[in-house]
Amino acid sequence: IANAKGWTKYLPKAWRSVAEEADPAQEAAQEAEVIGDVIPLREGAVGADGTAYLKLIAPGRGSCGFYPESVLERDGPKAFPKGTKNFWDHQTAADEAARPEGSLRDLASILTEDAHYDHSGPAGPGLYAKAKVFEQFRKPVEDLAKHIGMSIRASGKAREGNAPDGQSGRIIEELTRGISVDYVTAPGAGGKILQLFEAARAAKPQPADEPTEQKIDT
């Protein structure tokens, strides 16, 4: 299992040698879950019309591995096309098991164009896209812009190797399927900020009344 997921380096040394011997093609790319690091939002991120220009991910080393610029430029448009959903926080494992498509109550915005690589983007090189932020989330996004950011969820292929930055580890070779790009709290955000983030998540429109069954005389 560790071999299949590219986690061989986390095994005890004694197990690792057995696993490596058992898999002569260990350097080949393996399927991987890709969770992006937090890309901070800019202040004034949301325009008067509710549109935002979001940076989705930057090239270079992240917590899930090394993201080559060429991979983001090639795979970004297909992985995160127009219509990709942006949820208020990543789903937990329990959330994903119960509702893999995500909850509409947490839907904060949606991409209005295919993602594209911008070498000279306003927040540096990276994958960008315009989005429509839904009305009930516009003020929370603006108020919390300093303390939250965007983080991708995707499936991809990765291999172990030496990255261009000189470090060894996981290198993302392909983004095969984008799942969402979500608003998440930045590392080190204080308790008060987390409370505000959660409060914004809870402040959503109430669902419409359920239709009641009625007898219709004919």
Folded structure, characterized:
- This protein is of the alpha+beta class and 218 residues long.
- Helices cover 24% and strands 33% of the residues.
- The longest helix has 12 residues, at 191-202.
- Strands 3, 6, 7, 8 and 9 form a 5-stranded antiparallel beta sheet that branches. Strands 1, 2, 10 and 11 form a 4-stranded antiparallel beta sheet that branches. Strands 4-5 form a two-stranded antiparallel ribbon.
- Mean pLDDT is 80; it is low at 22-26 and 206-218.
- It contains 6 helices and 11 strands.
Lay out the secondary structure.
Elements: H1 2-5, H2 13-22, E1 30-35, E2 39-40, E3 51-57, E4 60-62, E5 65-67, H3 69-79, E6 85-87, H4 93-98, E7 107-111, E8 116-118, E9 126-133, H5 135-143, E10 148-162, E11 168-185, H6 191-202
Antiparallel strand pairs: 1-10, 2-10, 3-9, 4-5, 6-7, 7-9, 8-9, 10-11
Task: Describe the structure concisely.
The chain is α+β, with helices and mostly antiparallel strands and 218 residues long. The chain has helices spanning 2-5, 13-22, 69-79, 93-98, 135-143, 191-202; strands at residues 30-35, 39-40, 51-57, 60-62, 65-67, 85-87, 107-111, 116-118, 126-133, 148-162, 168-185.
Task: Output the keywords.
218 residues; alpha+beta; five-stranded antiparallel β-sheet; four-stranded antiparallel β-sheet; 6 helices; 11 strands; 24% helix; globular; disordered C terminus
